[in-house]
Amino acid sequence: MYRWTDHTINPTGEARVTLRRVLKYLGLPDDVISDGILAVSELVANADEHACGPYEVRLRSAAGRHICEIHDGDPLLPVDLYGAALPPAEAAMVEVESGPLTERGRGLHIVNELARGKWGYHVTDRGTKAAWVVLAEASATRKPEAARPDGRAEGSRRPPG
């Protein structure tokens, strides 16, 4: 769906634009699109900052879900991989250690909240890694209204008169 290299100027912004276009085409509701774009943006930014390229964003449907994967060229999984999924009390202890005014390190917490815990990383067949996030159950996809020859949506009634 979208590829970039270490020399790409704004991969996060470009990934957002591309993902928005594809999710709208699939007919996903606006709130699902917004949350999905934010979660994927965080994962793209992490890949771009912490891993080596080449990079790729892929979208696939599996088991009734739309799943976005962010592939990079680094085989190492992030340290403290699922720290973002800590219960609130434990997360508060981590925040005290890092400081409440710390500007960095909250991206995976955001991803975890938006994805309701349905995200992670896996090592690919090529020995590199991919972050993944479930954007929506396929049932969340809106069915496009079928247009009739007279321009009205299928199932709509002609106004009386």
Automatic annotation (TrEMBL):
Coiled coil: none annotated. Pfam families: HATPase_c_2. This is ATP-binding protein. PANTHER family: ANTI-SIGMA-F FACTOR RSBW, ANTI-SIGMA-F FACTOR RSBW-RELATED. Residues 13-116 form the Histidine kinase/HSP90-like ATPase domain. It comes from the Bacteria. Keywords: ATP-binding, Kinase, Nucleotide-binding, Serine/threonine-protein kinase, Transferase. Residues 140-161 are annotated as: Disordered. InterPro entries: Anti-sigma-factor_SerPK, HATPase_C_sf, HATPase_dom. Gene3D superfamilies: Histidine kinase-like ATPase, C-terminal domain (3.30.565.10). It comes from Streptomyces edwardsiae. The keyword ATP-binding applies. One of its GO terms (molecular function) is ATP binding. SUPFAM superfamilies: ATPase domain of HSP90 chaperone/DNA topoisomerase II/histidine kinase (SSF55874).
